[in-house]
Design goal:
By secondary structure, this protein is of the alpha/beta class. It folds into 3 domains: 9-120, Gyrase A, domain 2; 140-209 and 378-434, Up-down Bundle (Four Helix Bundle (Hemerythrin (Met), subunit A)); 219-369, P-loop containing nucleotide triphosphate hydrolases (Rossmann fold, 3-Layer(aba) Sandwich), CATH 3.40.50.300. It contains 15 helices and 12 strands. The chain has a 6-stranded mixed β-sheet. β10, α11 and β11 form a beta-alpha-beta unit. α6 (153-177) packs antiparallel against α14 (403-421), α7 packs antiparallel against α13 (381-399) and α13 (381-399) packs antiparallel against α14. The protein binds guanosine-5'-triphosphate (GTP), potassium ion (K) and magnesium ion.
Length: 441
């Protein structure tokens, strides 16, 4: 049984600040009474009605608003709820908010509407996360991934796995319960086989190279190189604006300067860093420390060399398989054929030569590391942790010597998956044991 929610909450559902329209949303059992207190009679369900809103105590008219009434359970939260579409001025919003409090509502906590929807079974935790991601999505690929999750792709996948484990558990329990009786031959082996097959499915879902998580969080790309290689010039050229200071003086950049890029739908944080060298100045030393740390955290390192300089040892250290090697200042000299065993991309931040090729290569690298697959992908470390745990328990079944231990492992696997969706259905097993499974008694 879900906990009983007896209060009514409201919040500004549209963005803060002056706008043509502001939407206040209300949800909870007191919604109908509160709407009546401000707007008079309740409008017909799900139809916009123009109403004067009055303060319930002073009867002062606060606004002319569109009022929508969504009786539960067919509402977003599953509760009685309403929307007030106000004129979007701060004083209007404040006045109506105060009137709502006077009528018995309270301001909602962050995420409370979606939380209520979860409590009322309108969505599972993964769909709730999908909605949060949809609101935060910056690129088209992020939006598609979030929408897929909000529409229940992960809920369906994980719910299906949970149902299969529940059925296996039912059989395993029956095997324990009715051991002396006429059970189908090989029942125990069939459970082990099905558990192994499911474990393999979960393992292949986990072997996604973190693409969904990376798409959700964005990729970190760090630009590294010697002072004056043209790192800041490249950052500016890729960002299309003067985000970082460029100068002929070596050691210009100290702090990490970040820009956000949309590379083929993958959000990328591109970081410009201090030039690597043996520095004396304590501020520059700190800048170089930050540069190295950023490169260690990065999903991709862009090692920048200048065509008119021999490759420096400090940057060469970072040239490894997977590093993107760039030779800048191509307008001054030819780029070498290889640096540290990798073929560099020749560019000139000044003339623009090679920048399209660099952008294309970056987009290729980004989509190789993050992005939408044909199948629904997990998007959060908590999904990964719980699925890894579930797969571990399913692996136990192959080696568990006793039926009771197998049942215990199945129960643990079910709980782990139940944590992802927020629906821990161990109770459901009891019904299945004596219901679905036909023992003939
Ligand atoms: N000719 C030429 N000059 C360039 C190019 N890119 C950058 N420069 C110049 O090289 C100098 C250094 O550029 P920056 O972008 O400040 O170099 P940086 O690598 O960020 O330097 P630090 O921040 O000091 O590490 C500036 O005078 C730029 O105008 C290029 O492609 N060709
Ligand atoms: K510089
Ligand atoms: Mg710089």
């Amino acid at each position: 049984m879900p906990p009983v929610i007896d209060d009514t909450v409201f919040a500004l559902a549209s963005g803060a600040g002056r706008a043509a329209v502001a939407v206040l949303r209300l949800s909870g059992p007191g919604t109908a009474a509160i709407v009546r207190a401000l707007a008079g009679a309740l409008p017909a369900p799900r139809q916009a009605s123009l109403r004067r809103l009055r303060h319930p105590h002073s009867a002062e008219v606060l606004d002319q608003a569109l009022v929508l009434w969504f009786p539960g359970p067919r509402s977003y939260t599953g509760e009685d709820s309403a929307e007030l579409h106000l004129h979007g001025g701060p004083a209007v919003i404040a006045g109506v908010a105060e009137a709502l409090v006077a009528a018995g509502a309270r301001p909602a906590e962050p995420g409370e509407f979606t939380r209520r929807a979860f409590v009322h079974g309108r969505l599972d935790l993964t769909a709730a996360e999908g909605i949060a991601d949809l609101i935060a999505a910056e690129t088209a690929a992020q939006r598609r991934q979030a929408l897929r999750q909000a529409e229940g792709a992960l809920a369906t996948l994980y719910g299906g796995w949970a149902a299969r484990i529940t059925a296996l558990l039912a059989r395993q329990e029956a095997f324990i319960e009715f051991e002396d009786e006429d059970l189908p031959e090989g029942l125990d082996d069939a459970v082990a086989g099905a558990a192994a097959a499911l474990r393999a499915e979960i393992a292949s879902h986990l072997a996604d190279a973190h693409r969904g998580e990376r798409l959700r969080e964005g990729l970190l790309v760090a630009i590294l190189g010697a002072p004056n290689a043209g790192k800041s010039s490249l950052l500016n050229a890729l960002a299309g604006r003067e985000a970082a200071i460029v100068s002929a003086r070596a050691g210009t950049t100290r702090d990490v300067v970040e820009v956000r890029l949309d590379l083929a739908g993958v959000p990328v944080t591109l970081a410009d860093t201090a030039g690597l060298r043996e520095a004396e100045d304590e501020i520059e030393v700190e800048g170089i420390r930050r540069a190295r740390r950023r490169a260690e955290e990065a999903d991709l390192v862009l090692a920048v060399f200048a065509a008119d300089q021999a490759p420096d040892a400090g940057t060469l250290d970072w040239v490894r398989p997977g590093t993107l090697v760039v030779v800048n200042k191509r307008d001054l000299a030819l780029a070498p054929a290889t640096i540290g065993g990798l073929a560099p991309i020749p560019v000139s931040a000044v003339t623009g030569e090679g920048l399209n090729a660099l952008r294309a290569r970056l987009a290729e690298e980004a989509t190789a590391r993050a992005g939408l697959g044909a199948e629904a992908t997990l998007t959060r470390p908590r999904h990964r942790a719980a699925l890894t745990e579930a797969a571990g328990w399913l692996a136990e079944i192959a080696v568990a010597p006793l039926p009771e231990l197998r049942a215990e492992a199945l129960r643990a696997a079910l709980r782990a998956i139940g944590r992802i969706t927020g629906r821990v259905g161990v109770e459901a097993v009891l019904d299945l044991v004596f219901g679905e499974f036909c023992i003939g008694k």
